Amino acid sequence: MKNSPNRILGVIFGAVYVLVGLLGFAVTGGVGFVATEGGLLLGIFEVNPLHNIAHLLIGAALLLAGLANVRAAKGVNGTVGAVYLLLGIVGFFIADTAANILALNTADHILHLGSALVLLVVAIAADKQVAPATRPAV
């Protein structure tokens, strides 16, 4: 198994997001699945059950890709980073609306933007020697 910045980051972020997803269920008892307001995780991050499931799925994708190979880790880190960048920006505009089905708050937006920055920088800047996937000859 070749260690690389993308694989290491994927495994670390993946494990953290899986843990956050699991811990979120401890504070979302009685919270509606897509409630616009949720329980507070660590006293500051608002979550609902859908948000917890999203953390579990994203964490699993990062973790599995990080354990698989450099190309998978780089691709998933970049993809998750791009999605978090979009979510971090859009989150500010939907926070007080019915579209806020993940119960996002300002702390979530900042964390999503921070995660996006780290994931995107590593996906873009590290492991440049990894060749892009090629299509099989037809």
UniProtKB/TrEMBL annotation:
For this protein, the parts annotated as crossing the membrane are 12-33, 53-70, 82-103, 109-126
Query: What Pfam family is a match, any one?
Result: DUF4383
Keywords for this protein = Membrane, Transmembrane, Transmembrane helix
The name on file for this protein is: DUF4383 domain-containing protein
Superkingdom, according to UniProt?
Bacteria
